[in-house]
């Protein structure tokens, strides 16, 4: 029995070694041989590297989750740009865990990357990690949502416009009158802005009322359950339209309505994902989604980073416009994710 | 093997005749940590720097402190699924209290909230004889709920400078979370190894009926064990909120599993009665090293999850072999 335990230990090590070799190997080959010779010397002066260089070599990004196609689009866009421009791209998902995201940023700092992109789990809570990066002299750019602590720049969708476009479509289709359910999301700036823009669009129409405001936690699963409950408490004919703050939310609610055989209302959304576009194509009930452009955000971020390295000033906030996608505008739109 | 009072003697015996078995039993995880560190050091120049070591240890501190408390629980044959929720609640409470009072009492009160949550777990587990997994599954849910109710779902922002030091400050060149981690381990190492209470913990885990029959007061002992886990979670929660500059009601989900994994990796048997607290420290170090190193090496994120998952399964497998080995 003792032997088999030793065997198991050996197995762990063998597995780890081979996995590390397999995963880290491809690009390690280009950078580690010259450096690995003196690991102890490196500990003496950890801040010496990367001083006078003016070129992006490594860009690291942490996004709030990688289980939503929208954020996977950030990952893929970054990898695409990296390939074209010849730098190394690292993307990690924080699974909505702020502590995890902070740890990821700290490790990026230790890795001495040239640029950090942060899609903050919590705009305020991430401030500590952002400050650490800034103190280490690494430019840190917020994407999708703003971040406190001294980011160099923030690049995001014009979320207010996104909510507004959804609201305008809804007002038009409702002819200025009806009961609206709001399937809200977690407390982050992008969600606040969308809801604000939406409310702005409907505010001149007193006959449009928000009768429910619930948190679908920005994912399909929770939104499905939340909307099931809303349906149970609002009988047929009492809901006229639904605004979900992103596509996973709206799709979750839409699927719950379908499962309950309810079709007495329609949906508007924000994101412009493939899934939502498919539903818009097939079903009148899925009315509109305000399309975001994650790729344009990443491209812009890299542009800004290059400007920074060249010593230029960059804008503090860059808003990337969104487009309203509905049955009428569908033909001219290709979803990015 | 279980329930034998001589159990507690194995530590000294093992040290006396230093054979391969003894080393694998007590030091297996230490060797694994050393080997994996050496691997990372060779593969990435940034790994073995003072600043990265401090960074890695600071990130490990939370999990390590949770694992210290979890060691007591698992040694009695129990489990505590509520530690992640206690981390959130204690952090939120600490930040909340800091609005009204100086940092030190606020932090102590935050920790005390953790202790109270653990105490309730302990009373329920010991008195009702309900399985710990059910009791703590329940408290995991209601404690998280309380954290949301207290904050209304929004993070509470921390403004107190000395409170923030708890997570971001240094004692000399060493970050304060690491200092606290070492203190926690020093205290609980002594309690576990050199007190009657510590020996009782092992005996309850070995066989709680027998422990009861030999006159150990199982109910108060168990209550203390869960309270200790609550205290550790409370300390971790306070440190984490200082690290994150805010009391986050949604933080810490899944931390219970990381803590359990650290304890099991450290050689403590899930069946109870066998294990050491120092092992848990190295178990946590192993997981911290793995996370840190994999990111430094730019291992793709999805692959990191696969590797970590496999490691945890293997840890349980090793635990099985250990139990079978001890029986045979």
What is the topology, as strand order, of the major beta sheet of chain B?
Answer: 1-4
User: How large a portion of the residues of chain B is in β-strands, by DSSP E?
Assistant: under 5%
Record field, number of beta strands of chain A: 12
Number of helices of chain B: 14
Residue-averaged pLDDT of chain B: 88
Shape of chain B: globular
**Which fold name fills CATH's third level, the topology of the largest domain in chain A?**
Rossmann fold
Helix content of chain A: 40-55%
Report how far apart the termini of chain A are: 52 Å
Keywords:
heterodimer, A: Rossmann fold, six-stranded parallel beta sheet, six-stranded mixed beta sheet, 12 strands, B: 328 residues, mainly alpha, two-stranded antiparallel ribbon, two-stranded antiparallel sheet, disordered N terminus
Question: What's the quick description here?
Answer:
By secondary structure, chain A is an alpha/beta fold. Chain A has helices at residues 2-35, 39-44, 69-85, 98-110, 127-135, 159-174, 189-202, 220-233, 247-259, 274-282, 294-309; strands spanning 58-63, 88-93, 115-118, 140-143, 153-157, 178-184, 208-215, 241-244, 266-271, 286-291, 317-320, 323-326.
Detailed description of the structure:
The complex is a heterodimer of chains A (337) and B (328). Chain A folds into 2 domains: 97 residues, Response regulator (Rossmann fold); 142 residues, Rossmann fold (3-Layer(aba) Sandwich), CATH 3.40.50. In chain A, 48% of the residues lie in helices and 19% in strands. Chain A is built from 11 helices and 12 strands. In chain A, helix 9 links the parallel strand 8 and strand 9. In chain A, helix 3 crosses helix 11, helix 4 runs parallel beside helix 5 and helix 6 runs parallel beside helix 7. The longest helix of chain A is centred in the N-terminal third of the chain and has 34 residues. About 9% of the residues of chain A have low confidence. With 328 residues, chain B is mostly helical. In chain B, the strands form 2 sheets. Chain B has a two-stranded antiparallel ribbon with strand order 1-4. In chain B, strands 2-3 form a two-stranded antiparallel sheet. The N terminus of chain B is likely disordered. The chains are: A alpha/beta (337), B mainly alpha (328). Chains A and B meet through helix 1, helix 2, strand 2 and helix 4 of A and helix 2, helix 3, helix 13 and helix 14 of B.
């Amino acid at each position: 029995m003792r032997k088999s335990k030793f065997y198991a230990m050996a197995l762990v090590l063998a597995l780890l070694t081979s996995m590390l070799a397999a995963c880290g190997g491809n690009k390690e080959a280009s950078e580690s041989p010259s450096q690995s010779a003196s690991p102890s010397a490196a500990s003496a002066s950890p801040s010496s590297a990367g001083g006078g260089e003016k070129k992006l070599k490594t860009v690291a990004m942490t996004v709030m989750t990688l289980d939503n196609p929208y954020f996977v689009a950030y990952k893929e866009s970054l990898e695409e740009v990296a390939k074209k421009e010849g730098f190394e791209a690292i993307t990690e998902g924080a699974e909505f865990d702020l502590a995890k995201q902070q740890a990821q940023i700290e490790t990026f700092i230790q890795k001495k990357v040239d640029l950090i992109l942060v899609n903050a789990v919590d705009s305020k809570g991430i401030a500590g990690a952002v400050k650490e990066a800034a103190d280490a002299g690494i430019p840190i750019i917020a994407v999708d949502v703003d971040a406190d602590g001294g980011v160099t720049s923030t690049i995001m969708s014009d979320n207010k416009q996104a909510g507004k476009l959804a609201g305008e479509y809804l007002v038009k289709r409702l002819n200025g009158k009806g009961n609206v359910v709001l399937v809200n999301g977690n407390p982050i700036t992008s969600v606040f802005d969308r809801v604000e823009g939406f409310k702005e669009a409907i505010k001149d129409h007193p006959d449009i009322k928000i009768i429910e405001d619930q948190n679908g936690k920005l994912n399909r699963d929770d939104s499905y359950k939340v909307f099931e409950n809303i349906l149970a408490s609002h009988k047929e004919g009492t809901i006229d339209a639904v605004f979900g703050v992103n596509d996973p939310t709206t799709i979750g609610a839409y699927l719950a309505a379908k499962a309950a055989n309810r079709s007495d209302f329609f949906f508007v959304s924000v994101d412009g994902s493939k899934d939502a576009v498919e539903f818009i194509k097939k079903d009148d009930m899925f009315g509109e989604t305000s399309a975001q452009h994650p790729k344009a955000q990443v491209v812009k971020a890299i542009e800004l980073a290059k400007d920074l390295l060249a010593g230029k000033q960059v804008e503090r906030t860059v808003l990337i416009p969104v487009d309203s996608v509905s049955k009428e505008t569908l033909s001219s739109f290709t979803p990015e994710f | 093997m279980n329930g034998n009072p001589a159990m507690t003697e194995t530590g000294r015996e093992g040290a006396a005749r230093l054979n391969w078995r003894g080393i694998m039993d007590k030091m297996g995880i230490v060797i694994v940590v050393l080997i994996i560190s050496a691997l990372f050091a060779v593969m990435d120049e940034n790994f073995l720097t003072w600043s990265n070591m401090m960074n890695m240890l600071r990130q490990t501190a939370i999990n390590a402190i949770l694992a210290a408390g979890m060691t007591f629980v698992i040694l009695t044959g129990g489990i505590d699924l509520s530690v992640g929720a206690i981390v959130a609640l204690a952090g939120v409470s600490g930040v909340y209290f800091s609005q009204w009072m100086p940092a030190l009492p606020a932090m102590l009160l935050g920790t005390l909230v953790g202790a109270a949550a653990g105490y309730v777990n302990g009373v329920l587990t010991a008195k009702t004889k309900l399985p710990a997994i059910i009791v703590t599954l329940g408290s995991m849910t209601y404690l998280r709920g309380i954290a949301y109710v207290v904050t209304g779902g929004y993070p509470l922002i921390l403004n107190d400078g000395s409170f923030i030091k708890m997570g971001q400050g240094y004692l000399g060149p060493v970050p304060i979370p690491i200092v606290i981690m070492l203190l926690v381990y020093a205290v609980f190492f002594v309690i576990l190894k050199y007190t009657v209470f510590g020996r009782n913990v092992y005996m309850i885990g070995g066989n709680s009926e027998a422990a009861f029959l030999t006159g150990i007061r199982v109910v108060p002992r168990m209550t203390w064990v869960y309270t200790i886990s609550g205290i550790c979670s409370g300390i971790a929660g306070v440190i984490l909120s200082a690290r994150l500059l805010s009391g986050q009601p949604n933080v810490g989900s899944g931390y219970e599993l990381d803590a359990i994994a650290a304890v099991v990796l450290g050689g403590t048997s899930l069946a109870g009665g066998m294990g050491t607290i120092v092992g848990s420290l190295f178990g946590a170090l192993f997981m911290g090293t793995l996370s840190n190193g994999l990111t430094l090496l730019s291992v793709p994120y999805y692959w990191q999850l696969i590797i970590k998952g496999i490691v945890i399964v293997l840890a349980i497998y090793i635990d099985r072999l250990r139990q079978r080995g001890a029986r045979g």
